[in-house]
């Protein structure tokens, strides 16, 4: 997915750069975002022509087929997530924000159905194997699909990690949390805003990103938890 708000033909160059930077990465298709005009307008045509003209070099290493152009999503302020200093507004901050996020999602679904080749994207998704890397050139042996992280087996718990989880600290990649669990970590949530003490018997602390600056007064008032954090850090854990 390429931001096409300030470019046209160079969308193909950007896609080619990603494909050649990692020759083992499958790049089967291109979607242009922030298109000006309609799906049949000049902007989309220029990008489509550029991607298709690069078919000799812009290819899916899994199928050896040319990368497809699946269309472009137009600029639409109704889909834009409101921004603020140091981040975006979270969808669950309030009932109004939740309703607004649902409305944006519905609008985005409608735009995708109207402007993208969804059948082509689904068909690409069914090509679930790729050549395995070989020391003697390219191999056509299909590589097994990795087990989804959410379904992978976890090892026996080896440590307990306290994870800050509230409105002040809420930015986490789900994959990172799954990987920690797979490695044997037990994740124990606590709230820097409302928990009076850290969870017992923890081996580490994980503070993700978020908006602590918006909750500075409440965080400062939670003196007992702050003392626990300081004591834990000074313990050399």
What's the short story on this structure?
The chain is built from seven helices and ten strands. It is α/β, with parallel strands linked by helices and 237 residues long.
How would you describe the overall organization of this protein?
The protein is built from seven helices and ten strands. It has 237 residues and is α/β, with parallel strands linked by helices. The strands form four sheets. Strands 1-2-3 form a three-stranded parallel beta sheet, with helices on both faces. Strands 8-6-9 form a three-stranded parallel beta sheet, covered by helices on one side. A two-stranded antiparallel sheet has the order 4-5. It is elongated. The two termini are 42 Å apart. The relative contact order is 0.09.
Topology of this protein?
Elements: E1 2-3, H1 10-21, E2 29-35, H2 42-53, E3 68-74, E4 83-84, E5 87-88, H3 95-115, H4 118-125, E6 159-164, E7 169-171, H5 174-182, E8 185-190, E9 204-206, E10 209-210, H6 216-221, H7 223-234
Parallel strand pairs: 1-2, 2-3, 6-8, 6-9
Antiparallel strand pairs: 4-5, 7-10
Characterize the main sheet: 3 strands, parallel
Order of helices and strands: EHEHEEEHHEEHEEEHH
What coarse outline follows from CA principal-axis ratios? elongated
Question: What is the count of β-strands?
Answer: 10
- Average pLDDT value? 86
Helix content: 25-40%
Low-confidence stretches: 130-146
From the alpha-carbon coordinates, what is the Rg to the nearest angstrom? Answer: 23 Å
Structural class: alpha/beta
In what order do the strands lie side by side in the largest sheet?
Answer: 1-2-3
Strand content: 15-25%
In whole angstroms, the N-to-C terminal distance is: 42 Å
Number of helices: 7
């Amino acid at each position: 997915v390429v931001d096409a708000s300030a470019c046209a033909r160079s969308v193909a160059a950007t896609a080619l750069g990603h494909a050649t930077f990692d020759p083992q990465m499958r790049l089967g298709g291109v979607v242009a975002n922030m298109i000006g005009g309609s799906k049949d307008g000049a902007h989309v045509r220029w990008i489509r022509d550029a991607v298709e003209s690069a078919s000799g070099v812009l290819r899916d290493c899994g199928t050896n087929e040319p990368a497809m152009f699946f269309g472009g999503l137009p600029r639409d302020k109704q889909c834009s997530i409101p921004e603020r200093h140091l981040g975006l507004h979270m969808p669950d901050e309030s009932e109004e924000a939740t309703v607004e996020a649902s409305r944006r999602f519905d609008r985005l679904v409608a735009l995708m159905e109207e402007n993208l080749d969804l059948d082509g994207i689904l068909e690409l998704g069914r090509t679930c194997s790729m050549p395995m890397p070989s020391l003697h050139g390219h191999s056509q042996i299909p590589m097994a699909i990795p087990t989804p992280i959410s379904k992978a087996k976890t090892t026996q718990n080896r440590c307990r990690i306290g994870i800050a989880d509230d409105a002040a600290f809420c930015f986490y990649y789900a994959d990172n949390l799954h990987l920690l669990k797979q490695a044997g970590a037990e994740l124990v949530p606590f709230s820097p805003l409302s928990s009076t003490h850290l969870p017992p018997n923890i081996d580490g602390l994980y503070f993700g990103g978020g908006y602590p600056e918006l909750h500075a007064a409440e965080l400062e008032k939670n003196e007992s938890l702050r003392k626990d954090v300081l004591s834990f850090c000074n313990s050399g854990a």
